[in-house]
Amino acid sequence: MSQATAAFTEAQLQAISAIVQQAVLPLRQKEGLTNGDANGISNGYHYTAPENINDAPDRVKFAYWVPNVSGGLVISKIPQRTKWDYESNVRYAQTAENVGFEFALSQIRFMAGYGAENQHESVSFSQALLHSTKKLNVIAALLPGPWNPAIAAKQIASIDNYSNGRISVNIVSGWFKAEFTSIGQWWLEHAERYRRSREFIECLKGIWTNEKFTYKGDFYQFHDYPLSPKPVALPGRPHPLIFQGGNSIDARENGASVSDYYFMNGNTLEGFQEQIADVKERAKKLGRGDKIKFAVNGFCIVKETEEEAIQLLSEIQGKADKDAVEAFGDAVKQAGSSTGEKKGMWANSKFEDLVQYNDGFKTKLIGTKEQIADRILLLKSLGIDIVLLAFLHYEEDIEGFGEQILPLVRQLEKEGRGKDVEDEIRRTGDVYRARKAD
Fold this sequence. Notes:
By secondary structure, the chain is α/β, with parallel strands linked by helices. It has helices spanning 3-6, 10-30, 86-99, 122-131, 149-162, 177-181, 190-209, 249-258, 269-285, 306-318, 322-331, 351-354, 369-382, 394-404, 406-414, 421-428; strands at 41-43, 46-48, 61-65, 103-105, 137-142, 167-171, 213-216, 221-225, 242-245, 261-264, 293-299, 301-302, 366-367, 386-390. The strands form 4 sheets. The chain has an 8-stranded parallel β-barrel with strand order 3-4-5-6-9-10-11-14, surrounded by 6 helices. A two-stranded antiparallel ribbon has the order 1-2. Strands 7-8 form a two-stranded antiparallel sheet.
């Protein structure tokens, strides 16, 4: 015990703590920093979600982007209170699970570019976060090419055992050509990258679920390979969840045929409806109509008024790192407009959209807490199961979302919201509709 505290008894220290909390609470209430829900409690100066916040089986789930690369989640020169170091990320992860987030997605980068000058490796970083949390499911990004499915399957199965089944994977087909060529990897054309990813996923699933695995593909081959230990056996989960994103026909085919979750960039109402319906129809033809689920990327700005939120968005875009955004736009053409059907990721993205890596501004989670809750419930009604969020200031925005918006979404879900797509479109759909000028 330090000299400063040694002079006080335990009872005196508790009394002092109570006085401090009583003094601070009115200030937090005035600033809108407390939930006001009788079920919510304060953990020191931090909000803690009720234990039953995620009990409803048909709830929409929430994930956040792990900032394990430097530069924050927007390509902008605006100050961001978001750190990429391990200690800060442990704090973000613990805060996130404390307020009701169920997933976190780590990023994969092998080299600097577009504001991300430093990058922690995704799998080891995900494992580190799992050791510092109790409930959070961390989705580790994997890049076929640099990773072999045998190594990935072994790594993830072991981590799954260490974490009691809390690791998932996101298979990234790749968009950064220099990232491949600089480490001596072949840069495949778009369709071939997705074909390799499909084989990669098939191998992961086969290795994880078969006593011995044999596979003869164009990219990978296995001969009676016996992995042990297997991933943790959980009810309804034969293997760690497999996420995969995209927008092209190649990506949709992969999602329909082999993935558990299909990640989408931000889009218009019509864009979301078309993409979800198409992937579902493809999955149905393959006998997987009830197997594929959907997740969407969004950037969240919550303010007291919509005008304040839009003003901050304009500032983020106005202070964009022009050279970095344009270089990023050039790099992702291969992943978007280069596809034959012009439906790839970023194919229709404008400069202001690219300031947030995965078109997160298009998801329109920018406004008051009531507006954002309404829009999340519209997304749920469209068939979206997980909303993946990024923030400007991770130091306070993760907790702010959990305190202000997540409980409101849960309350509205209890009232029956998020199920009637026509009702949700009537309430808030206009904000997502495609504009002729687009």
